[in-house]
Amino acid sequence: MVRFSTEITPSDPQEQSVLLVGQKCYLDFLDNESVKPKIGTRVTEELYEKALSLVKGNTESVPLYLKYATLARLPNVCSRHNTPSQAHTLAKLVKAHMGGGRDGFIVVACDYRDILASACAIARCFPLYSKKQRDTAFTITVNFIVMDPCKVKGRIMEDDIDCLNAAAMGVRLSARIVDMPCSEMHTDAFIQEICKVGDMLNIKPVIINPFSPNDNLALSF
To answer: Distance (Å, rounded) from C-alpha 48 to C-alpha 71?
Structure first.
């Protein structure tokens, strides 16, 4: 399960993995006071400040507590084929540091305009269908710290959270349909998926079967 939240709730890196990530110009928003609930007493303030100084330099990521808490930096420079959000690099970092099939938290410091792209990139890292990963019964909670002065305490609103959760569900559902082989996601199964989505949206889809005798459809071959 991937969900987005406005509140940075307390957690313990020994129990849940933690990834703190942002571009160099946004790392100041990931100061010790902001991320203290996520790292607790496992990481001292002195150690965190030292890790932050390393990440602001040339180091891409620094482990804070074993392999379960990591501070990482996104590149600032992007080519014409990438996006300012650096969503492709964010996805690589999430895959590298948030595996293992355990609950975890991701805190992203970014510009408000980059939130949707970052959210979709994170959602795609946790597929609903996988033959390699058996354990999918874990929850990844994502928090965004934005540098938009119009946002209260640098956090997004509940309307934004609803939008991100819906977008993440759409991304993961679409990926599952594409990732499943034709032996499992065949025509009948695809129609069942359409009906499930219709039930979620409180709509009744119209399914036209051209081979049904009840449908007045003329087929030409």
So the answer is: 9
What share of the chain has pLDDT > 70, as a percent?
A: 88
pTM for the model stands at 0.85
Q: 125-169, pLDDT tens digit by residue?
A: 998 888 776 666 789 999 999 876 555 456 688 899 999 999 999
CA dist 166 and 160 (Å) reads 10
| 5 three-state secondary structure | strand
* Two tokens, residue 67: 């392999």
Residue 27 DSSP code? G
Task: Classify residue 77 as exposed, middle or buried by CB count within 10 Å of its CB (0-12, 13-18, 19+).
Answer: exposed
212: exposed, middle or buried (C-beta count within 10 Å: 0-12, 13-18, 19+)? exposed
Residue of 174, 145, 128, 120 lying closest to 33 (CA atoms): 145
Position 170, amino acid: G
